[in-house]
Amino acid sequence: MRKIHNSQSGLISTQLLVVIIIIGIVAAVVLAPRILGQAGKALQAQAAEEIETIGIALDTYAKDKGDYPSTEQELAALWEKPEKPPLPTSWVAPYLKIPIITDPWGNPYIYIRPGIHDRYGYDLISFGSDGREGGTGDAEDVVSWIRFDE
Fold it and tell me: Can you say how many angstroms the Cα of residue 43 is from the centroid of all Cα atoms in its chain?
């Protein structure tokens, strides 16, 4: 009689383990896309915040120097004295203490002066997770002329 009881308790433990594994798999399949989607949104928000930070530095540079850095000078003009024309007459920077070179996906920010969308200012672009123009979701571009939360 005891042999039957011991083998049944082993069977119940195995069944319980299988049920727990199945619940875990179902939870992972249901929750993983939601969690990954939130991570993508967080990176988009980080890119928007970095573009805002760079934008403030660019505006300060323009106020001090009379104009924004040229496309050729790139964003590096915000943390090191430009060596490409137009050379600033004085150098009081850095305007960014920590250089922001790449977006959260590791792709370089695109800086265009004068901008295509902002002819009197600049365009600053992150091409999102895919690193290419256009896209939706995580791959959607983050740009300086449209706020991320709009």
Answer: 4
Verify cis geometry, omega within 30 degrees of 0, for the bond prior to 94: yes
- Please answer whether residues 122 and 68 qualify as being in contact, where contact means their C-beta atoms are separated by less than 8 angstroms: yes
Strand extents, DSSP E, the chain: 110-112, 123-126, 142-143
Q: Which of 58, 61, 39 is nearest to 50 (CA)?
A: 58
Check if the beta carbon of residue 64 is closer than 8 Å to that of residue 92: yes
Q: What is the DSSP letter of 71?
A: T
**Residue ranges per structural domain of the chain:** 44-143
| Nearest Cα to Cα of residue 111 among 97, 96, 101, 99 | 101
CA 147 – CA 142 distance, rounded (Å): 8
Q: Is 44-143 CATH 1.50.10.20?
A: no
pLDDT digits (tens, 9 = 90+) for 82-112: 888 888 877 777 899 899 989 999 999 999 9
